[in-house]
């Protein structure tokens, strides 16, 4: 019901704030602002670029405990629990599910590049209904709930940039800012994921319109290192397009909730080859490939959907 969802939203927002505070405290220790050298955590390696810190694990344990205490019947899917095999056989199905990345942008956090955050989503009937993203180093707190709008720092409706924004032209995403992540699959094979990403960077940025004359001459090409923040930035209107192949559900669920609530589009397609034809409606969590397109008009929250 509406009341139940409101209560879950309020709980998720508070959880995002508390977990963000934990993340900020841990970052301060990393910076040497507080604590001692001995307190500096060590970094474990899943592989050369897939890293986990004690902060990822501590924050996930905290969030999981809060959720399972308050909502024992809900399913919990967290990046760190999954990596350790605890919920390896989960499916995002009709069960009310919490999908959590306690620290998205772990490499950024390790290097103190400020694009890192806590990312929490609540999913029902396979749809991300609530998204909360707290990037404490940036003072950016994103939140959304189905049909209630998406917000930055709880007061500014998303997208921020709308005057209004025209829709992207189908096959020529010039004049936009494009974001694509490197991901963790760095196999150097000609048809591998990494090469496709490099190709899409080149296609977007090339002076002569990219391969086959499609794409080309975007204003900027970016790579933040946090998939969920990429999606929040598309929801803001700061990025026009984000694309990544190789995502897990916890990398994208909260960002998708926020993006959709801001009026943006999410699909499983490649830029710029087939995004105009992509089936926008049938995007499912569980895909590894996502393409996000920024909202094309004013915020749904500002056009009267809020409070309905
Ligand atoms: C990663 C980040 C990165 C993306 C990877 C993710 P993590 O998450 O979102 O930007 O390229 O696909 O796994 O490991 O920092 O939580």
TrEMBL record:
<dbReference type="Pfam" id="PF00459">
    <property type="entry name" value="Inositol_P"/>
</dbReference>
<keyword id="KW-0378">Hydrolase</keyword>
<comment type="similarity">
    <text>Belongs to the inositol monophosphatase superfamily.</text>
</comment>
<dbReference type="InterPro" id="IPR033942">
    <property type="entry name" value="IMPase"/>
</dbReference>
<dbReference type="GO" id="GO:0046872">
    <property type="term" value="F:metal ion binding"/>
</dbReference>
<feature type="binding site">
    <location>
        <position position="251"/>
    </location>
    <ligand>
        <name>Mg(2+)</name>
    </ligand>
</feature>
<dbReference type="GO" id="GO:0007165">
    <property type="term" value="P:signal transduction"/>
</dbReference>
<keyword id="KW-0672">Quinate metabolism</keyword>
<feature type="binding site">
    <location>
        <position position="79"/>
    </location>
    <ligand>
        <name>Mg(2+)</name>
    </ligand>
</feature>
<comment type="pathway">
    <text>Polyol metabolism; myo-inositol biosynthesis; myo-inositol from D-glucose 6-phosphate: step 2/2.</text>
</comment>
<dbReference type="GO" id="GO:0006021">
    <property type="term" value="P:inositol biosynthetic process"/>
</dbReference>
<dbReference type="GO" id="GO:0008934">
    <property type="term" value="F:inositol monophosphate 1-phosphatase activity"/>
</dbReference>
<keyword id="KW-0460">Magnesium</keyword>
<dbReference type="GO" id="GO:0046854">
    <property type="term" value="P:phosphatidylinositol phosphate biosynthetic process"/>
</dbReference>
<feature type="binding site">
    <location>
        <position position="101"/>
    </location>
    <ligand>
        <name>Mg(2+)</name>
    </ligand>
</feature>
<dbReference type="InterPro" id="IPR020550">
    <property type="entry name" value="Inositol_monophosphatase_CS"/>
</dbReference>
<dbReference type="InterPro" id="IPR000760">
    <property type="entry name" value="Inositol_monophosphatase-like"/>
</dbReference>
<feature type="binding site">
    <location>
        <position position="104"/>
    </location>
    <ligand>
        <name>Mg(2+)</name>
    </ligand>
</feature>
<feature type="binding site">
    <location>
        <position position="103"/>
    </location>
    <ligand>
        <name>Mg(2+)</name>
    </ligand>
</feature>
<dbReference type="InterPro" id="IPR020583">
    <property type="entry name" value="Inositol_monoP_metal-BS"/>
</dbReference>
<protein>
    <recommendedName>
        <fullName>Inositol-1-monophosphatase</fullName>
        <ecNumber>3.1.3.25</ecNumber>
    </recommendedName>
</protein>
<keyword id="KW-0479">Metal-binding</keyword>
């Amino acid at each position: 019901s509406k009341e139940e969802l409101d209560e879950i939203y309020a709980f998720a927002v508070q959880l995002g704030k508390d977990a963000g505070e934990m993340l900020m405290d841990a970052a301060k220790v990393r910076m040497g602002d507080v604590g001692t050298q001995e307190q500096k955590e060590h970094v474990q390696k899943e592989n050369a670029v897939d890293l986990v810190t004690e902060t990822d694990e501590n924050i996930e344990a905290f969030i999981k405990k809060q959720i399972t205490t308050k909502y024992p019947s809900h399913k919990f899917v967290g990046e760190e629990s999954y990596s350790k095999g605890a919920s390896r056989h989960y499916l995002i199905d009709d069960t009310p599910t919490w999908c959590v990345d306690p620290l998205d942008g772990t490499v950024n956090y390790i290097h103190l590049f400020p694009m890192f955050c806590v990312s929490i989503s609540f999913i029902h009937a396979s749809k991300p209904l609530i998204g909360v993203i707290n990037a404490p180093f940036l003072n950016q707190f994103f939140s959304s709930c189905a049909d209630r709008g998406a917000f930055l720092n709880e007061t500014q409706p998303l997208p921020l940039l709308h005057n209004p924004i025209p829709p992207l032209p189908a096959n020529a995403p010039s004049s936009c800012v494009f974001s694509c992540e490197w991901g963790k699959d760095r196999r150097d094979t000609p048809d591998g994921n990494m090469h496709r990403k490099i190709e899409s960077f080149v296609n977007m940025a090339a002076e002569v319109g990219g391969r086959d004359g499609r794409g080309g001459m975007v204003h900027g090409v970016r790579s933040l290192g946090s998939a969920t923040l990429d999606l929040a930035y598309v929801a803001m209107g700061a990025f026009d397009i984000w694309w990544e192949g190789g995502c897990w559900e916890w990398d994208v669920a909260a960002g998708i909730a926020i993006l959709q609530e801001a009026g943006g589009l999410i699909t499983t397609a490649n830029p710029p080859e087939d995004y105009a034809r992509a089936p926008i409606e049938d995007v499912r969590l569980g895909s590894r490939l996502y393409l996000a397109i920024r909202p094309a008009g004013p915020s749904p929250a500002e056009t009267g959907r809020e409070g309905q």
